[in-house]
Write a structure and sequence with these properties.
The structure is a homodimer. Chain A is built from 9 helices and 19 strands. By secondary structure, chain A is an alpha+beta fold. The longest helix of chain A is centred in the N-terminal third of the chain and has 18 residues.
């Protein structure tokens, strides 16, 4: 009986939440609900100064914290609610964690996102108004398709996400294709949910800043990413979607771990990719990376040295971006660029502020996509 | 420096997890990792008797519990790990919560699912082998598309998921369409992630038990679901997908709250739907449902009474399913069926065990879909 009662109360409360009149999004101090609040939640909130405000009901806990890169101890009130306000945050997506008596979890008030090898919470700080970059706008929208495929490399069913541009469904054309990889601790969802790939591309295409393209987002957590991409993903995509099949209409890019995957795949295979994007990444200068690196870094540099002119002629764009000096990959990338300079490999370098974070990677995609397939 | 160090350690650890050799899925006792474990997690595990085993590292917590409908207190060992094993669980998907010192959260070791008005965890108990129902198989697969649309009813951008069958992409045919609604505390993701709609339909279609169809899964958390469906979703789907546009190729079904939405929409609009499915639901016999009900229940019964013969002639299938007496909607449904019987409204009733849970709703879809569009 007890179980049925709990279920009934749960059912009633969720129906009541579902049906409740929407609560005003702003309070008297001008703060607004995070757009990732789950239905019925009033926190986290965002103040006009872009501080995040948290309230967690935890009367029995000893210590409740928020980890947003920086840790904040929340303060308990007499009702057993724990409250806190952060420093101002930059625009865009930020991962955060709730820590309850030392246990790091996702905030039950918030949408969850797979990152940092677990389901974390996310908060979205508004961008400047009226700039058609990262926000959903009243323009034609493409779609993102969840597609299952059998990977011979992994000997398992896997999932990819495929962005198709607004014009795809009703045309019979073939489109160029960008393979776009997430970072470590993330998966194929990263570029869709945290990265807003579809929104960014829809916005760029509507403004004719980028040509319509298909974007394929695979799970890079593979024992052999290059084999997975070349032997499984690309043949599957070319069989199942209307994409052009030559190198001049094929691009590869990735962030962080996905940037290393990109380098490790594109450098030995310039015959496959005319465009290469490396976001917040770089071959590791000092530490070896067993598992991630199939060849020693020097082998790649030798390849580049040996066929320098071919590489410079064949890559229509070799684009490297970095989230400023606070990006954890900055030093590796700097050393890699020095080696490229010494060899004479041409590349474009784009630096922005923000560190090793999604706002930087969204901006990287926003800057990189317009350079493709023109 | 501290923040960079934390980020670097996080980055290294996630790369190491991502790159690690896969750990054996089974231990000496024969238990296996839950298929929803995040990468690197070894718990929850499932024993051969289909018990779930949990291990949560929480040295500073006073009380750690698992809530699977029934609450289990985990037991702390000297390392600060909390362990516990549940009773045997039935096959299929079960929501569960981790409770740390009274705070109900999702388990950081597990995939998260939006249900019960928050991100909960899920555990999947294996089905009997070699039965092509709910498990991914080596057959042709359709896809699920995430599509944004502007809802005039909500005056907001919303998202729907659209399942297209395996043959859709390469044909020019128009397909019949089922509009399929989630329950209270869930959203448009429910039927995709918890419900495995694409797997169920791919399996049914491969066995020629169901005809290829498009399935549209909208967010039913709306102030006026009927208006949202009729004025926004259906016109958008008919404009953007190759679907047939007559009532005999249009079905509406939903579970729990979605079943009430289905009744409230299909009964006043038999001219729009030839097939109706009501899973684990029924008009509420006693309590009023402000918000959810636009009309008094008696108004619907009067409609049915008045046009009994028309309803019986026009619904090719009016299908009602129930998760046994332990289903929280059982009594409402029973009373509703009594009213239907008294009026003389024809319907098919299907009862199975399992209560108000996803295994029952998957089975409902598996039983209902083959009846459609034949």
């Amino acid at each position: 009986m007890e179980k049925r009662f709990i279920l009934l109360v749960t059912f009633l409360s969720v129906v009541m939440i579902a049906m409740a009149q929407p609560v005003s999004d702003s309070d008297t101090s001008g703060s607004v609900r995070s757009e990732y609040c789950v239905r019925g939640a009033q926190y986290p909130r965002i103040t006009p100064e872009h501080r995040a405000q948290f309230k967690v009901v935890a009367p029995e806990a000893k210590l409740v914290q928020i980890d947003l890169g920086k840790k904040y101890d929340l303060v308990r009130n007499e009702k057993g609610e724990w409250l806190g306000t952060t420093e101002p945050l930059g625009p865009g997506f930020h991962y955060y964690f709730l820590i309850v008596d030392g246990v790091r979890v996702a905030d039950p008030s918030s949408e969850s996102f797979y990152g940092c090898s677990m389901h974390t919470s996310g908060i979205e700080i508004p961008y400047a108004k009226d700039v058609l970059q990262y926000e959903l706008a009243d323009i034609p929208h493409g779609e993102v398709r969840m597609k299952r495929y059998f990977s011979k490399t992994a000997n398992a069913w896997r999932r990819m996400f495929v962005y198709t541009p607004p014009c795809y469904e009703k045309s019979e054309k073939e489109y160029p294709v960008l393979y776009l990889q997430h970072g470590g601790g993330e998966d194929e969802r990263g570029w869709v949910l945290q990265g807003r790939t579809d929104i960014i591309l829809d916005n760029l295409i509507a403004q004719q800043k980028a040509v319509p393209m298909v974007i394929v987002m695979c799970d890079g957590n593979s024992q052999d990413f290059t084999a997975e991409l070349l032997n499984d993903c690309i043949p599957f995509v070319e069989e199942n979607y209307r994409v052009k099949k030559d190198r001049s209409h094929r691009a590869l890019a990735g962030l962080s771990m996905g940037g290393i995957h990109t380098l490790n795949t594109a450098i030995p295979h310039p015959e496959l990719f005319a465009y290469v994007g490396v976001f917040s990444s770089g071959w590791w200068a000092k530490a070896p990376m067993p598992g991630l690196m199939k060849m020693d870094t020097e082998t790649y540099y030798s390849l580049l040295q040996e066929k320098k002119d071919e590489y410079n002629a064949s890559f229509k764009e070799f684009w490297i971006s970095m989230g400023g000096k606070e990006d954890i990959a900055y030093e590796n990338c700097r050393i890699m660029r020095e080696r490229f300079d010494k060899i004479g490999i041409k590349y474009t370098y784009y630096e922005t502020n923000g560190g090793h974070t999604w706002p930087v990677w969204r901006e990287s995609l926003y800057q990189f996509a317009p350079l493709l397939f023109k």
